């Protein structure tokens, strides 16, 4: 049988537009953009054109608000650690359901003496704006709440959170990890009201190892990587021009593909869940009652170990995951699910199915029948 790839949340296949742009860049742009001769200027032009396009796609005021990085984890660390270090005494506030890149960055700062507070979520995995404001109080802080959860797909009210915390403390810096949200929903400076926005190319069909951080003008930020002063001193190192070109091409393709993605890919997800509900009435879909990303389906199969189900599905060509890609090999239960109040034993019965731009017509129904057959056989 044909493979059915349902792990786009871990990484999406490279979009053809990105591949073509990268091949062209690799063939034609060989210089170092920090140089001064003609070949270097070609690379510099390609880099700055990509920066301008990325800024436009995110609705940034200025191209220099875009900092290219080595991926989502680096962008998250630059946002959290960089903004706190740049402002002595600034605290950090995160939700309990953040990606490990955010939580571990906050943990590192806390070990170095910074104050760190966490904000919980409700049973659907949604963070409440007023709760964030209460935690911030009158303290200057960097507040980080993701735009969409990387395990359940639940959307977070980032714009409302930004407004609420700024009402408590005008000097607060708001960061959102929009790595998952950009894939299937609008992510702009205006829609998030964030000062710092993280993206990672491989989640939306760009290459691995490339990302960006939007930095609102005037936001204090200390670099993590020191050297030649590239990226206006915010991230030193020779730019990966072909990767950046590919990422921005994938960004543009993702934005232009949003309506089709919502209708077609979201439709496959909906058909998948409809068949599961019909065949496996005991299966429980996480965060079903709140706004979710259109391509996520996080399902608990009572009395079925996720690892057992995933191994058996993998053997017959259905690729899915337990939790985030960063946790799929972990023994401990998902911190996201336990924060939502799920018992560890129940969390161990959950599987994340994530559709994507490369999903085919019929994948949803076909996958659901395969999953149901497998569950029935265990």
Q: Low-confidence segments, ≥5 residues, pLDDT <50?
A: none
Strand-residue proportion:
5-15%
Major beta sheet summary: 7 strands, mixed
- CA-CA gap between termini: 20 Å
The number of helices is 14
Mind telling me the CATH class of the largest domain? Alpha Beta
Query: In what order do the strands lie side by side in the largest sheet?
Result: 2-8-7-6-5-3-4
Structural classification? alpha/beta
How much helical structure, as a percent, in the residues? 40-55%
Instruction: Please tell me what the overall shape is.
Output: globular
Radius of gyration using CA atoms only: 21 Å
CATH topology of the largest domain: Aspartate Aminotransferase, domain 2
Number of strands: 12
What is the number of independent domains? 2
Q: Give the rounded overall mean pLDDT.
A: 96
> What series of H and E elements makes up the topology?
EHHEHEHEHEHEHHEEHHEEHEHHEH
CATH architecture of the largest domain: 3-Layer(aba) Sandwich
CATH superfamily of the largest domain: Type I PLP-dependent aspartate aminotransferase-like (Major domain)
Keywords:
14 helices, 378 residues, Aspartate Aminotransferase, domain 1, globular, 7-stranded mixed sheet, 3-stranded antiparallel sheet, Aspartate Aminotransferase, domain 2, alpha/beta, 12 strands, 42% helix
Layout of strands and helices, then pairs:
Blueprint: E1 4-5, H1 16-28, H2 38-58, E2 66-69, H3 72-85, E3 91-95, H4 100-111, E4 116-119, H5 129-136, E5 141-144, H6 158-168, E6 173-177, H7 181-184, H8 189-192, E7 196-200, E8 211-215, H9 241-256, H10 258-279, E9 284-285, E10 296-300, H11 306-315, E11 318-319, H12 335-339, H13 344-347, E12 350-354, H14 363-377
Parallel strand pairs: 1-11, 3-4, 3-5, 5-6, 6-7
Antiparallel strand pairs: 2-8, 7-8, 9-10, 10-12
Helix pairs in contact: 1-9, 2-9, 3-4, 5-6, 10-14
């Amino acid at each position: 049988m044909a493979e059915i790839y349902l792990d786009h949340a871990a990484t999406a296949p490279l979009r053809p537009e990105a591949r073509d742009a990268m091949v062209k860049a690799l063939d034609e742009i060989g210089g170092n953009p920090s140089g001064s001769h003609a070949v270097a200027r070609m690379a510099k032009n390609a880099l700055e054109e990509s920066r301008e396009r990325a800024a436009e796609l995110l609705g940034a005021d200025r191209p220099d608000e875009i900092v290219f990085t080595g991926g989502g984890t680096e962008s998250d660390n630059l946002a959290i650690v960089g903004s706190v270090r740049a402002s002595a005494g600034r605290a950090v506030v995160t939700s309990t359901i953040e990606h490990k890149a955010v939580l571990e960055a906050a943990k590192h700062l806390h070990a170095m003496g910074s104050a760190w507070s966490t904000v919980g979520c409700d049973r659907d995995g949604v963070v409440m704006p007023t709760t964030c404001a209460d935690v911030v109080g009158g303290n200057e802080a960097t507040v980080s709440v993701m735009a969409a959860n990387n395990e359940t797909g639940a959307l977070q009210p980032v714009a409302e959170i930004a407004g609420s915390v700024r009402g408590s403390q005008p000097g607060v810096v708001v960061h959102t990890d929009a790595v998952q949200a950009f894939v299937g929903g609008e992510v702009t400076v205006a829609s998030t009201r964030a000062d710092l926005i993280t993206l990672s190319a491989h989640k939306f069909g760009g290459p691995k190892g490339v990302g960006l951080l939007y930095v609102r003008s005037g936001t204090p930020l200390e670099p993590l990587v020191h050297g030649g002063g590239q990226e206006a001193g915010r991230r030193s190192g020779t730019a990966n021009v072909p990767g950046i070109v590919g990422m921005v091409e994938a960004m543009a393709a993702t934005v232009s593909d949003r309506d089709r993605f919502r209708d077609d890919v979201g439709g496959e997800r909906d058909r998948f869940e409809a068949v599961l509900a019909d065949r496996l009435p005991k299966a429980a879909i996480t965060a079903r009652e709140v706004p979710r990303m259109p391509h996520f389906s996080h399902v608990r199969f009572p009395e079925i170990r996720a690892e057992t189900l995933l191994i058996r599905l993998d053997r017959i060509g259905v690729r899915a995951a337990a939790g985030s890609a960063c946790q799929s090999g972990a023994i401990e239960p998902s911190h996201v699910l336990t924060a939502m109040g799920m018992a560890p034993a129940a969390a161990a019965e959950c599987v994340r199915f994530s559709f994507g731009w490369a999903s085919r017509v019929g994948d949803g129904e076909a996958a659901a029948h395969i999953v149901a057959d497998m569950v029935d056989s265990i």
